[in-house]
Fold this protein.
Amino acid sequence: MARTVKHFSLHRIGGTELRVVADVENGVIPLIQVEEAVIRGYAQQGLWPCRSVTLFVLQDLQPLIRQLHAGANLPPGGTAALDHRPVVNVYDLAERASCHIFINQQAMRKEGYWDNPLAVQGLLAHEHAHPLAENETIRSSRCLQVELSNVVLRPQSEVLSPKSSEFELRTKDLLTLLADKLCLYAPREVFANDMTIRSGFGEALLHLNRLNVLNASRNVAGREELRRQLQQEVPRGNLTPTAADLLLLIGDLKGYLDLALEVAPFYRTEREIEAQELETVLETKVFPHLEPEVPRVYTALREQYVALNADLTPDELVAWGAEVLNILVEALTEKGLIMQYRLRVAAGRGEEK
């Protein structure tokens, strides 16, 4: 069903035309003001290539998802994950004079961003930073592909048959998403955050991440319910104890490790006090409630992201990515999962972020 346009306006910010289209009635004007401030901020740094920006403020991102073509270069999780993103920037790397920013009201409200202008500034500055942060390493990341194989739970005596193959397939799918996010997609996030901070939006990004680590500390309350549900499946014969523990670990890794992508850029830009502030919350209010492997994996990944160079060739990025994946493999092996992977240079993919 078509959405009703409830707001349309045109704005001129220096040499950039900002078009705003919304299917929501309230809260649009403050978003426009923040977007204008972000455009001015990048323009003052001499970094702004856009002559035209279209800002869509939508109830959700279904209108965008329906328009994406089959070959679109989507974030890990595809369209299902895209619908949960608060802000998305769609742009053509070959023509950076225009871009399309999509704001997801539903996701913004859920994360506590909607009525928080400084958090919105951090989000918009980060999204606009993606095309500005393009470098050799990011281009190389688009040429990489990871394939997981031999995802098998050990000891074999604990594997339930015939349900074991179903469990291992489900586990492989979850770990593929995790590998894509933490290895293939990570350079884009790290360098976009670098650009955001170095362009004068560090305070906004810090404020946004303060909200994110606070949300993470609140989310651990729901983890106990997940643990209880998994343990209930053991006497029913649906899971072994090893499998239940493994799924809990994967849930922890999937839910919290991407915070390393947010903290590492503060170290990279010599803002250690801010980085340590965020990590103090993680160390006191989040990690103690997770599987013990998680803080060790987080720290190792953060160091990988801090050390990431901007000029890596595809082959050099394969070597870096293998170190990232080996960190995950080691933690999973401790929980009884044997996993092999193949990280290789493949054909380039897509134009959109």
